[in-house]
Every structure is written in structure tokens, then in C-alpha cells.
Design goal:
- With 181 residues, this protein is α+β, with helices and mostly antiparallel strands.
- It is built from four helices and six strands.
- Strand 1 and strand 2 (84-111) form a beta hairpin.
Length: 181
């Protein structure tokens, strides 16, 4: 029992330290990085078609994830509706278990409907797995993502990875609205 408590304490400390050290960038910086990430995403076959059917997208251009048994991740991004930024968000998580590595990557979350978008934006700190589910899209070289239908409310895409990280899950990941200065 003591070992489990120690692990949870370390996770909490790691998450707090990680999020405290990282202060929000200026909105213009976040928007510029989101623009670059969207262009990179659009290079995939069918991506423009897929994005044109999404009600909204939440883009995190640079999410840093690291761990050695105990891990965490952090990133900042922007919610876009019809190409316009409506809000800024922070993504954080802490975890323990079999994980190893350090990775920087980009995430894109596509909302298939206004209802999914409204449910997300009305929450005060939306948590994947608790407040709603996210479907991680299976895609790769040569696959036409334009054929993905919006059967699920939210689809996640992970792209532009640099580094290596064994462990990919969004369960327990927290999304918090921020007001960057």
C-alpha cells in the first residue's frame, strides 16, 4: 500500500512540476504553431476532406511526453471552428506503469458535431475517459483519412512524432481552457 501511495505522490508531483514550469505562450505564438501543425496534418492523403467535415478541431502543435515508469505530458493548443480560434487549451496527464522514453508530437482532435463540441467546451476541465471518449484514428502512410466517417464524437490523430515513447493512451488526459497573455 505504501508503494502505491508513493507512486501516486510522485505522479502528482511530476504533473504539478511539469505544468507549473510551463507557462502559457502568447496567443499569436500558439496560433502560428497551430497553423504550421495543420499544414503538416493536411499533407496526409484525404486530410483536407476530413477536416472540411469536422465541426471543430483542437490542435496541440507540440506535446511533450516523457516517462520512466512514472510519466507525464504537457502541451498548449487552440480550438478552431471554421478556421477561427475560439479558445486556447492545455493538455496534461500523469501516469505510471510500463512506459519509457521522451517524445514530442502533435495532436489533432476532430469534433464530428456541434453536440460533441458543446459538451467539451461547456466542461470545466474535460477529462478523456471520464467526461467523454476519444477514438484514436488508425492511419498511416498512404491511407486516405478522408474516408473516415464521424461515427464517434471525437477523433484523435497523433502525428509529427520526434523521439520515442512506448505508451499511447488518452484515458485520464485532462484538457483545461487557458487564457494566454
Amino acid at each position: 500500500m505504501r508503494n502505491i501511495f508513493s507512486k501516486f505522490t510522485l505522479i502528482a508531483l511530476f504533473t504539478v512540476l511539469f505544468t507549473t514550469l510551463a507557462s502559457a505562450e502568447a496567443p499569436t505564438v500558439i496560433d502560428a504553431k497551430v497553423d504550421v501543425a495543420l499544414k503538416k496534418f493536411e499533407e496526409q492523403k484525404g486530410a483536407k476532406n476530413f477536416l472540411s467535415r469536422a465541426y471543430a478541431v483542437l490542435v496541440f502543435p507540440s506535446v511533450v511526453k516523457g516517462g520512466f515508469g512514472i510519466g507525464g505530458e504537457y502541451g498548449e493548443g487552440a480550438m478552431r471552428v471554421d478556421g477561427n480560434t475560439t479558445a486556447y487549451y492545455r493538455i496534461t496527464s500523469g501516469s505510471f506503469g510500463f512506459q519509457l522514453g521522451l517524445q514530442q508530437t502533435s495532436y489533432l482532435f476532430a469534433f464530428g458535431s456541434k453536440e460533441a463540441y458543446d459538451s467539451f467546451t461547456r466542461s470545466n476541465g474535460w477529462e478523456a475517459g471520464a467526461d467523454g471518449s476519444i477514438t484514436v484514428a488508425k492511419w498511416g502512410a498512404g491511407k486516405d483519412i478522408g474516408s473516415i466517417s464521424f461515427e464517434k464524437p471525437i477523433y484523435a490523430f497523433v502525428f509529427g512524432a520526434k523521439g520515442f515513447m512506448y505508451n499511447l493512451t488518452f484515458k485520464g488526459t485532462k484538457f483545461t481552457k487557458i487564457n494566454p497573455e
